[in-house]
Write a structure and sequence with these properties.
Distance between the termini: 56 Å
Number of strands: 17
Helix content: 25-40%
Number of helices: 19
Radius of gyration: 22 Å
Strand order of the largest sheet: 7-13-12-11-8-9-10
Low-confidence stretches: 365-369
Shape: globular
Length: 485
């Protein structure tokens, strides 16, 4: 066996063809996948999945250039190691001024005693998510639900008195974040799993009719004429808009002032965007957003089902304001069934779909008891963001050909199912994380409010040139709520 595990290029090419086939597209040009050794110690084909989606994005960009009658993209290459490393890009940022740099993100168990894996009365395991580190209301609510003080032993003892499904239902009823660990088979046989299995990994739904229209594009900035409203946070949604900005889109990130955030995620996913505050509980600010919707081509939101509808910006409401809109919905559990309105995160997508069980099978303790384990990356978050951006580009292509408005739907759990369907590597997996010299060759440097930032550049090359991020990240609320500022 080789000392390191190599990327499976055949699988990557096949996966790329499958993504394009969703819209009846054949590969217009050959894609070169370069890189070799994998980065992450995971049995799943993480790098292959991410690389195939990034390649599909680039080929859609080539399609848009061709449809616009402009210069074409004839050469596409993906650095597979960089693509795989991007699944943990927030942790690979480098700041020269440590006094200004975002604080190190602690593991969930160190942020609150009510976080992580716990064993229930029936021997099943549940994962409780701690939400944001500066948002203690969630952890306090979990403690109140369990009736215990802020002590990990007390939490563990309380959980051990309850059956896993009962506790999962209590957490869901309270609007909190937690889920029972399942096997892949259990999830696939569940109602939620079956609903997700019935839809593609990227859903593209036509929501309005309209005339086809030309989209002006160029090979160096294929999405230069695309205006994107990004109403998302942590992590998949912001990655979607960041990806679009890399291809030249004009992205305006809208956030409510005072909402919790993770600063390292802001610096990672805020690259290439303007950032403004709007309070959607204020009628004046809702009016301002309605005006922006009318100017936009893409409206991307990452809240659980029902939230944006209550604020007046659900898919039908936005399409009424702008019939040519491409509306993006990103959530954890999918967009149908009883799970669609539950809050969820990367870890919970891994937990319910069987991904954590499978990862844990390779990490057994001395007694031979299998324990669930999380991926060494935010695999579903970043990949779902990449898939959402691909969906936008697919929708734009359809819009050029036949007109209309479109609804792009993706979810962390559907992505986790798709990744698992690609198969698994034999264990042990021997990965090679990038070392400083390799990282230096991947970094793009910016002057920012946090000091000099070195961030991973895109893993994409077009026509022999590396794609570059167009602008540094900025602190939230830096700009006015306008595309022109």
């Amino acid at each position: 066996m080789n000392s390191k595990t190599q990327l499976n290029e055949t699988l990557t090419q096949t996966t790329l063809s499958g993504l394009l086939a969703m819209q009846g597209i054949e590969k217009p040009v050959q894609v070169d996948f370069t890189g070799g050794d994998i980065c992450l110690e995971s049995p799943f084909y993480c790098g292959e999945a991410a690389s195939s989606v990034l390649a599909a994005q680039t080929l859609l960009a080539a399609q848009l250039c061709k449809l616009g009658g402009k210069d074409t993209i004839n050469e596409v290459a993906i650095n597979t190691r960089l693509a795989e490393a991007s699944l943990v890009s927030f942790a690979l940022q480098s700041f020269t001024d440590q006094d200004k740099a975002p604080s190190t993100r602690l593991p969930p168990e160190e942020r609150t005693p009510a976080a992580g894996f716990f064993t229930c009365q029936d021997g099943r395991v549940i994962y409780i998510h701690s939400s944001f580190p500066d948002y203690p209301q969630h952890s306090d609510a979990i403690l109140q639900l369990l009736g215990v003080p802020a002590d990990r032993t007390a939490v563990s003892n309380a959980v051990a008195k309850l059956p896993a499904r009962e506790l999962e239902e209590r957490i869901a009823h309270a609007g909190l974040c937690g889920a029972m660990v399942r096997t892949t088979t259990e999830w696939d046989e569940s109602t939620a799993g079956q609903l997700l299995a019935a839809v593609p990994v990227v859903e593209l739904i036509k929501i309005t009719d309209g005339n086809s229209h030309q989209f002006l594009s160029s090979a160096d900035r294929p999405l230069a004429n695309l205006k994107v409203l990004d109403l998302t946070r942590v992590l998949a949604g912001p990655v979607c808009a960041r990806s679009l900005s890399g291809f030249g889109a004009d992205v305006l990130h809208i956030r409510g002032k005072g909402l919790p955030n993770v600063e390292a995620f802001v610096t990672d996913t805020g690259i290439g965007k303007k950032s403004a505050y709007l309070n959607l509980k204020s009628e004046n600010d809702r009016d301002a957003l309605r005006g922006l919707v009318k100017q936009s081509h893409v409206f991307s939101q990452g809240y659980r089902s029902g939230v944006m509808e209550r604020l007046g910006f659900g898919v039908e409401q936005v399409a009424e304001l702008n019939p040519d809109i491409i509306y993006v919905s990103i959530n954890c559990y999918g967009h149908q069934g009883q799970w669609c309105q539950q809050p969820g995160w990367e870890q919970l997508a891994q937990v319910v779909t069987g991904m954590a069980t499978h990862q844990g099978n390779y990490h057994q303790d001395g007694a031979g008891l299998t324990k669930p384990a999380l991926q060494p990356s935010a695999l579903n978050d970043y990949t779902t963001g990449y898939l959402a951006a691909l969906g936008v580009m697919m929708a734009k292509r359809r819009q050029v050909l036949e007109g209309g408005g479109y609804w792009v739907r993706v979810s962390l759990c559907r992505t986790a199912m798709w990744v698992q369907q690609l198969g698994c590597r034999d264990f042990p997996v021997q990965a090679r994380m990038p070392q400083p010299a390799e990282l230096q060759s991947w970094y793009q440097r910016f002057d920012t409010a946090w000091g000099e930032l070195a961030a991973l550049s895109p893993a994409i090359r077009m026509n022999g040139s590396a794609l570059q991020w167009p602008a540094p990240p900025v602190p939230l609320g830096t700009h006015g709520a306008s595309f022109s500022t």
